[in-house]
Write a structure and sequence with these properties.
about 350 residues; alpha/beta; Purple Acid Phosphatase, chain A, domain 2; 6-stranded mixed sheet; 3-stranded parallel sheet; 12 helices
């Protein structure tokens, strides 16, 4: 079987399984992804003062890009994106094949884990399991199968296509539920962050848990394209390039690019970021893409129309910044056809 054929088979197995991954498989996939992330070249990710890849990733301007908003355990969203073609954006074959031949790029905009409102009832059952010491854990197993499955998929894709698949950190990338380093403990319906942390300590101690933690700390925060920027959340303020590169020692940068709520950003931050990172084009001709807060339809415009928010947790959405023209959200924010099969390849 070809390399891409073997990858398809593995991705399909992840999407079809009904139980969380084996600990060894989980550790292997994420440790391999971490090795790639920690050794990315300076042209792709300029190094910080400690010699590690910094918080800015430079996308290849000549290649079409598919950007996926918050995943939140939806493996099928990733498979749908990989199965789709984007002929209006220069990808006339399934995206996975275009990645395999080096003719496209894929960007995850963060929040790989924690199902949202679609799993509210499941979280309530899982909370009962949590308070019972996880003596029973069927509901939590379902949640972790989805969330860990997405991390596995990202890890496999990053390992297979290191220069063309990239992932940003979101506010949910906090497996230990820590308070600090730009992270905040998480709880929306119940105590999701604490529940996941306890589950990982109990069922994935040692290498698997360490691999997830290390992966989260290795993800960059800001992607720079030819005429667009991408971060998980709207920038809380203007962050200059060196600040973002040194994100490991700057909790304010981590928080400010992953946690910013609607209407919390300083006025002008989006325009200032566009002008600073995209000096070859006018800020009014560039866009800043992000997810984090849900939108009602395919997208919402903020910051005078320059910030395009495209996370809808009930729909499968992708943003496809064009290579040779200005971004048009009506044309370039797409709804994907749901696909759980991932080809016949």
């Amino acid at each position: 079987m070809s390399t891409v054929g073997a990858l398809i088979r593995t991705l399909r197995n992840i999407s079809e399984r009904s139980t969380p991954p084996a600990a060894d498989d989980m550790a292997l996939a994420l440790k391999a992804a971490c090795a790639v992330l920690d050794n990315e070249g300076a042209q792709l990710r300029p190094a910080d003062s400690g010699g590690l890849p910094g918080g800015v990733v430079y996308l290849r301007p000549e290649l079409p890009l598919v950007a996926l908003p918050d995943i939140h355990g939806r493996v099928e969203l990733v498979l749908s994106a990989l199965s789709a073609s984007y002929p209006d954006h220069g990808v006339d074959e399934p995206l996975l094949y275009a990645l395999d031949s080096g003719r496209a790029q894929l960007l995850f905009v963060g929040d790989y884990v924690h199902a949202e409102a679609r799993a509210r009832d499941r979280w309530m059952h899982a909370f009962e399991e949590f308070t019972g010491g996880f003596k029973k854990h069927a509901a939590m197993d379902q949640e972790m199968n989805e969330s860990l499955g997405v991390l596995q998929v990202f890890g496999l894709l990053k390992q297979a296509y290191p220069d063309n698949v990239h992932g940003l950190k979101g506010n949910h990338e906090n497996i230990s539920n820590e308070e600090g380093e730009g992270n905040h403990a998480f709880g929306k319906f119940v105590l999701e962050g604490a529940m996941v942390a306890e589950y990982m300590q109990r069922f994935y101690p040692g290498a698997p848990l360490e691999a997830v933690y290390r992966l989260e700390k290795s993800l960059p925060l800001l992607a720079v394209g030819s005429s667009f920027l991408v971060s998980h959340a709207e920038p809380a303020r203007f962050f200059e390039r060196e600040e973002v590169i040194e994100y490991r020692s700057s909790p304010d940068v981590v928080e400010g690019l992953t946690w910013t709520d609607n209407d919390q950003a300083e006025p002008g931050s989006v325009y200032a970021m566009l002008g600073h990172y995209l000096r070859h084009c006018e800020p009014q001709e560039a866009v800043y893409l992000g997810g984090h807060r849900p939108v009602e339809n395919l997208y919402a415009l903020r910051a005078g129309g320059r910030y395009v928010q495209f996370h809808n947790p009930s729909r499968y959405i992708a943003a496809t910044p064009p290579v040779n023209r200005l971004f048009d959200p009506e044309r370039d924010v797409l709804e994907l056809k749901k696909n759980k099969v991932l080809f016949d390849g």
